[in-house]
Amino acid sequence: MDIRLIGIMLICQIFSSTRAKEAQAKSEAWNERAPGSLSPRSSPRGGAKTSSSHGTSGTGRGAELTQALHGFVKQHLGAWLQIVSLSLQTDPSVITSEEFDILGLVLCGGTSKTQPLWKLSDALPDLASKSSMAAADLRKAVGKLLSWNEDIYTIDVAKDGLEPRAKTLNLSNVLKGIWFHRPHNAEIEYLNISDCKDSTIYVTARIRFCLITGCENTTIILGGVSTICTTHNCEKVSIHVAAHCYKMENCIDTSAFLYCHLPPIITGDTRGIKLAPYNVLHSHMASVLHGSQMTLDREFVDIWAHPICCTAGMAGGDSDADHARGVVRGAKYHLPFRAPQQVLSRGGA
């Protein structure tokens, strides 16, 4: 486990939309965790697990929140550079390309807004060619290039009667049913699964972003997610997914069968979870994973077993840390799961 990844995530948890609005109104700096229901320490058992309680509205974030996030990154870029260079007492003088690439957990660069580069350092030609760069020059270069990707993370909040700008699939309130998405070669920009109970859901198409919220006693089988898949405020859910990045927040007694490029992120009041390797079999899996840039590679075969844990129950020692957080890892949970070609009853699309 690279402790620098934990440091980056802990800084991310400082951000709160409510606190950002208060700071804008009072023109005051803030750097503390927001209290109340928006805190990652809020327990899933403490309130209703409905999608409306997560502070999301439509498909967009809104201009004010976007501006606050942009300012948050600029404000804390120096702290992130200190973390990746392990220069915690003083500002670093030089940042290497390998150290800067660690910030790929929260930043992304690309030749266009829809074609990201594999390494973050490739977005800065001077850094990529010399393998290192003065920290002050690096901060200036990032500050000039830093912008919000409106093509991927839309700013406009969807209004009633208007179609979302992207291909969005919203699935909610499936109760004691089986839901099967077809065709397999569809492209989904945003997949939102919320408030489903005692059900089984299959979505084996290519997906860019996936958010699973407020579900209970539900099995969710996904194909390839090219950017990030988040499970939030769920209980007794089993998720099977191949995702570039996977995040679990405020979940209890939940299992995740993963293939991922980045270590899974476990945060908030998350307890009693199980992690295991991705185990889904279906006839179109190879083409779906290839289209999502998630082709199975030996280099990433065990990334699922090394999560970044920033949970409320973190322990001080490494030997008992997993038991304190309630994280179980092991191949004994790796049983093949075969996705059907179609479902002839109890729902579908």
UniProtKB/TrEMBL annotation:
<dbReference type="InterPro" id="IPR016098">
    <property type="entry name" value="CAP/MinC_C"/>
</dbReference>
<feature type="region of interest" description="Disordered">
    <location>
        <begin position="26"/>
        <end position="61"/>
    </location>
</feature>
<feature type="signal peptide">
    <location>
        <begin position="1"/>
        <end position="20"/>
    </location>
</feature>
<dbReference type="InterPro" id="IPR036223">
    <property type="entry name" value="CAP_C_sf"/>
</dbReference>
<comment type="similarity">
    <text>Belongs to the TBCC family.</text>
</comment>
<protein>
    <recommendedName>
        <fullName>C-CAP/cofactor C-like domain-containing protein</fullName>
    </recommendedName>
</protein>
<keyword id="KW-0732">Signal</keyword>
<dbReference type="InterPro" id="IPR012945">
    <property type="entry name" value="Tubulin-bd_cofactor_C_dom"/>
</dbReference>
<dbReference type="InterPro" id="IPR017901">
    <property type="entry name" value="C-CAP_CF_C-like"/>
</dbReference>
<feature type="domain" description="C-CAP/cofactor C-like">
    <location>
        <begin position="164"/>
        <end position="308"/>
    </location>
</feature>
<dbReference type="Pfam" id="PF07986">
    <property type="entry name" value="TBCC"/>
</dbReference>
<dbReference type="InterPro" id="IPR039589">
    <property type="entry name" value="TBCC1"/>
</dbReference>
<feature type="compositionally biased region" description="Low complexity">
    <location>
        <begin position="33"/>
        <end position="56"/>
    </location>
</feature>
